[in-house]
Design brief:
Layout: H1 3-13, E1 17-21, H2 23-27, H3 49-52, H4 55-60, H5 62-72, H6 82-92, E2 98-101, H7 107-110, E3 116-118, E4 121-128, E5 134-135, H8 137-141, E6 155-159, H9 168-180, E7 183-187, E8 207-211, E9 224-226, H10 230-240
Helix pairs in contact: 6-10
Length: about 240
């Protein structure tokens, strides 16, 4: 039995499956990740991307923040890929409880997934820091300079920047899902971003599966590790479900 056949067997036998995903899920849509050799962190800017994407930088150098943000994080010309689509299909067929994602592109919802816990927020949601009026991503990305609310306040993306804490309800829901599922499928993540990566330590179920092109520090803890393209794996899953 191949590794993918084993994974499909796990999915079919599981009463409760959770998917925990990272940047590798969306790079197959054409998006750049942050940490690979071609990622955003290895491009040259006046400031390191980690600094630009911090809370203090957003407050102190808002215009510079938005130059980078609009240039690098506009995903409107990209679409969900096979992995997003199959996860949505699995949920529809009651073979998936929820998706927990570190991504901020909103592709899981675009593909039709209903229960999605976005650990780091979403670029699709933006709000005025003064009156809390909501704005979509189109408004922000098509604005000139710093996007402003009708009240005059500065609009902030609902994404978790460096120096900011994760949403408490999202943390609780994610940990509860991981702690109570039979099967945890981890895909497209280096498991280097904390506290999110630490959530998988709450798993107490039957099988933990990791799908990632590169080796991670958690490989040895998994029942099954597939070092391959996540899209290729989900192509096979689609045929079987």
């Amino acid at each position: 039995m191949t590794d993918i056949e084993t994974l499909i067997k796990y999915i079919k036998e599981s009463n409760s499956t959770v998917f925990f995903g990272g940047a590798g899920v969306s790079t197959e849509s054409g998006l750049k990740d942050f940490r690979s050799k071609d990622g955003l962190y290895n491009e040259k800017y006046d400031y390191p991307p980690e600094e630009i994407l911090s809370h203090s930088f957003f407050i102190e150098k808002t215009e510079e923040f938005y130059k980078f943000y609009k240039d690098k994080l506009d995903t409107r010309n990209f679409k969900p890929n096979i992995t997003h689509e199959v996860l949505s299909l699995m949920e529809e067929k009651n073979k998936l409880d929820c998706v927990i994602t570190q991504n901020i592109d909103g592709f899981h919802q675009d593909a039709g997934s209903k229960t999605v816990y976005e650990l780091h927020g979403s670029i699709k949601r933006n709000y005025c820091m003064d009156c809390h009026k909501f704005y979509d991503d189109k408004y922000v990305f098509e604005s000139n300079g710093i996007p402003k609310c009708s009240c005059g306040g500065i609009i902030k993306p609902d994404v978790v920047l460096y120096e900011e804490g994760l949403d408490e309800d999202t943390i609780k829901n994610s940990i509860r899902a991981i702690a109570s599922c039979d099967l945890l499928i981890i895909g497209g993540t280096s498991l280097n971003v904390y506290p999110a990566a630490g959530f998988i330590n709450y798993f107490r179920g039957k099988h933990m599966v990791l799908i990632n092109k590169d080796i991670t520090q958690y490989d040895h803890l998994c029942d099954l590790v597939i070092h391959d393209s996540i899209g290729k794996v989900f192509e096979q899953i689609k045929k079987e479900i």
